[in-house]
Amino acid sequence: MSIFQLAPELERDCIELADWPLCKLLLLNDSQYPWFVLVPRVSGMREIIDLSTEQQLQFWQESAKLSHLIKAVFNPHKLNVAALGNMVPQLHVHHIARFEHDAAWPKPVWGVLPAVPYSEQQISEIKKALEVNA
């Protein structure tokens, strides 16, 4: 069994927030959108169906937990949850809070504008808000 490693693209573009029982919780480093990524810490996974039945159940529990946290903290107009993997084949699932006033609305967020990195203070505030609402 190989050791889990985060895809280099995710490592480059994201901020690690936490390790949950199955997934690594990441924040995409683009302050234009509250954009989180769950990555199951299981090597070689490309699709949710590649996880064992128990891992799939745990993944959906963690996805629901994150979705509820995003709704509680950010109160989005819409929550987008997507597993594309076209550019990064490692299994990862995006959870993006969308607002009618955000930079890409109503289009998808991918590639619309260059990323605007978070400040250390913003990252700290997001971590705190997620902990308080967990």
TrEMBL record:
GO function terms (MF aspect): catalytic activity
Domain HIT: start-end pairs: 37-105
Gene3D superfamilies recorded: HIT-like
Residue spans crossing the bilayer: none
Pfam families, alphabetized: HIT
InterPro entries per UniProt: HIT-like (IPR011146), HIT-like_sf (IPR036265), HIT_Hint (IPR026026)
Signal peptide range in chain numbering: none
Protein's name in the database: HIT family protein
Organism taxonomic ancestry: Bacteria, Pseudomonadati, Pseudomonadota, Gammaproteobacteria, Alteromonadales
